[in-house]
Structures are given as structure tokens and as C-alpha cells.
Amino acid sequence: MHYTSESIETVVELFTSLPSIGRKTAQRLTFYLLRQPRETVDKFSSALQDLKNNVRFCSHCFNFTEQDPCVICTSQKRDKSTICVVEDPNDVLAIEKTGEYKGLYHVLHGALNPLDGIGPNDLKIKELIARLNTDVQEIILALNPNVEGEVTTQYLAKITSQLDIKTTRIARGIPIGSDLELADEATLSRALEGRIQL
Amino acid sequence: MHYTSESIETVVELFTSLPSIGRKTAQRLTFYLLRQPRETVDKFSSALQDLKNNVRFCSHCFNFTEQDPCVICTSQKRDKSTICVVEDPNDVLAIEKTGEYKGLYHVLHGALNPLDGIGPNDLKIKELIARLNTDVQEIILALNPNVEGEVTTQYLAKITSQLDIKTTRIARGIPIGSDLELADEATLSRALEGRIQL
What we know:
Two copies of one chain form a homodimer.
Chain A: H1 6-16, H2 23-35, H3 38-54, E1 56-57, E2 64-65, H4 71-74, E3 79-86, H5 89-98, E4 103-107, H6 125-131, E5 138-141, H7 147-162, E6 166-169, H8 185-193
Parallel strand pairs in A: 3-4, 3-5, 5-6
Antiparallel strand pairs in A: 1-2
Helix pairs in contact in A: 1-2
């Protein structure tokens, strides 16, 4: 479909290239922006520039940050003896939201996936191993509950057991607010397996 | 939720301000852009600038355009005796996609909605009336099939009948590929009402 404007077409195509945005949504977003005052669009445009200019990886935990090391890695309030290993920066946000965790993080930027050719060298695994000094007393593996996350968990657990560091994984079970009869067999069997004494 | 980066937070908030984008999607889009090469983000940023700099309203049909009058209004191939009236520029795209319509358009930029305080002066209605010279032989009303579209259709039909111009509306009925038993009563009764002889 050709637009009467090249500039509209370009923005629609760029929006369409983003994950989970289809062509219809891209059109709607573009037309919405066209109706906004110039300041809004200018703000958007320069915010994208700032994003690329200001944000880098923390050289310790590989989360996104504006200062290196990041505020979590440098905070006096965080417990430096625990490192929680996650796949993505989004996962750090999700865990921070609980307000329960006071240790440090390590972002792998993915999970092992031999079919897609993602091996240990494509993830921040050697950077994790380099952080495992005598201060670190526990590694919490908080990877996604799917095949890739499972493979990565097993791989990391093997390394940390050789280094003799206590390694745990987050519990898999029935989500809060959900219905037992709606849980799939895999989840239910993990929930039984991981039962705790009352 | 606080991010460790102000620049990330700004982009997430700007994405969240767009229609149909929630906070989780906004986060995903922002992190996706962070992973892209600088050129992609630069392209996005400057495409948004171009959008505001290059695109304006066609002074004839009020569709978005880079040249005024727009390519449809100036095309020698279009039938200047028919004007199809729509609510939004998206609707022009949708009709152009059919490849069936060869006349001109007029974009109202909304529909009458007394509850939201949108009256005739908030839409491009007087601009439409100004276009109704002797060349124009038919007005096709293609507004959305809801209360606001219906009110606007009746309002415009009254004006055009006073000006003695043939006025039609697009058919309402069962959509192609859908199931008769799934159609609601209103649609089904319009489909019966609008039956044509074979």
C-alpha cells in the first residue's frame, strides 16, 4: 500500500519493524503523532537520541545504566554476597518491583539456544564467572521457565558447583491468583516437587 | 517503578502515551531499541522530525500530504465528479486498498459527537460545502457504522439534499467471510433492509 507521503510511509515502516507492532497499529501510531503538537514529536525524537547517547551497559552486572557501575552495583544498601542471574534487563525491573530482593544482579542478555546458535560465548557468562570472588556466597538463578532457561540453568549450576558456590533457583509452581485446575501438568508436577513443609 | 536510567524512563513514558501501548509493551519497545545499532535509532529519530516537517493537510481534501494539493486531488486519472467523505486519513487508505474507487476524498477529521462537544465547526464540514461546485455530481458518505457516524451522515445528508446533490452512503451488512449466525441484530436488520435484487 502506497501512502501519498514518503515521510508517513517511513515512520509506519519503522514502527512496523518494532516487536509486537503490526502494520495497522503502526498506521494508527503514525497518524496519532501527526495530530500531536510539534513539541511532542520533537521530544520523542530527541528522547530516542538521548537513549542511545546516554545509556550503556554496566561493566559489572550488564544491566542498562547511565552511570558505570550502575546505581544497584554501587549502592551501599545492597547485599554484595548474593547475585541474581537473569536473562534480560526487563527481568531486573520485574524483580526490583517486588521490593523483596536486596542483592546484586547479573544480566546474561539471553539464554543458551543451540538451535539458534546461541552458545555460552554469546552470553555474559565469562563475565559472571569473573565476578565470583570470595565475597559472593549465593547465586540465585532466575531464568525463564522454558527449555532455553532450563538448559542455561543447568549449564550455570554445573560451573558454580565446580567453584563450590551455593547456587539456588527461583521456585516454579502455581502462580498466585490462578486456579489449580487450570495449571498445566508440567507446572503442577514442579509445584508438587517443590513443596515445602508447613 | 524507577529505572536506573532517566533516558530509558523518558522513552518508556513517551511510548506509553501513544494509543494502544501499555507500560509493558513500552518497556519491551524501549529495550528493543536499546539493542539496535545506532543507525536504526537515528533513522527513527529523524523520521519523526521529517514527519512533522514534511507532512501537512491537503487544502482541498484535508488528507495528510507532502505536496499541496495532494496527489489524489491533482491526479488526472481521478473522477472529479465524485467525493467520498470519510472521518480519518486511515479510512482513505482503507478505501484506496480496494482499488475500486476512482473519485476524490474529503476527510472530516472526526465525527459529530455532542456529548464530547464536537460540533460541525470542529470538523472540515464548511470546507466540504465550499467544494460542492457544479462539477460534483455525487457525495458518497463513508462514515463509521456507529452512533457518531450515523449522526454525522444524517447531518451531511440534510445539507447536501438542500444543495440538490446526489448523496449515497456505503452499504451496511454482513461482512464477507463472516457467519450469518454470528451477526448482531442491528447488522442483520441493516442487511435485510439493504437487500438488492438479483
